[in-house]
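User: My advisor asked me to double-check a structure prediction for Manganese transport system membrane protein MntD before group meeting. I don't want to rely on an old file, so could you generate it fresh from this sequence?
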Amino acid sequence: MSYEAWILIVGSLAGICCGITGCFLILRRLAMLADAISHTVLLGMVLAFLISQSLNGFYMLIGAAAIGVLTAVFVQLLHSSGIQEDASIGVVFTFLFAVGVILLSLYADHVHLDVDHALMGEITFVPWDLVKWGFLPELPKAFLMLTTVLIINLLIIILFYKELKITSFDPQMAAAIGVPVLLIHYILMGMVSMTTVASFDSVGAILVVAMLIAPGASAYLLTDKLNIMLIMSALLGVAAAIIGYYLASWLDVSISGSMATVNGVIFAIFFFFAPHKGVLSKRWSQRKLKLT
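Assistant: Sure, here is a fresh prediction for Manganese transport system membrane protein MntD from the sequence you gave:
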């Protein structure tokens, strides 16, 4: 497969993984928690390396998922004790991220796990970072990780669709009928953590926030049905990845930055022109009501 094709495939997979996971963050109003987890998973990656002495993607996923859930637990504990949620998120993610940076500089500065790479990512190197898994031929590591995470995310969504849906729209009712709200919340945080670390090679920890939030937010403006929202967010994530790549090639700029920018532009378009929830549509409806 060609160099360009691998970049498009990996970017599209990142868009799908982030898009479908981000829908639940949008519905739960947890966009900033995604930003927090995208930073704190660095600590999970460093700990996974220190324990296993390996850069194997499986260990990184486990470490990232564990720290992502731990981040959510700490935020929940602080929030339950009376601290505002945004303050809880700020305290937890800056502390855990700082610990990760310190451990990285002290014990892992000799390995290719630098902060710049983890935060900014570089999708142009993805087709050259090949690994061999079992009977499969050598394939890009980012492709294998994103495919694995996508399958896991889809299985979780299929198995817990009703629970994810009701806890996202009405957590009080979910608790009243016996749905384990906190457990579902932490499962979702694990999904976010795995998706974030799997997307590092394509867009990095900072720009992955745009891919987690923008497609879901755009899809939210277009539909009121969760299943349609999931499909549309995945399609918008793919569209942003493909358009972003060709735009970056044309302008000779950062591919990951271009993908994130296109996500923002798509959201801006729907924010103004969405048929029912767009700003201009709402104003037009209000004007028609006044005229009648």
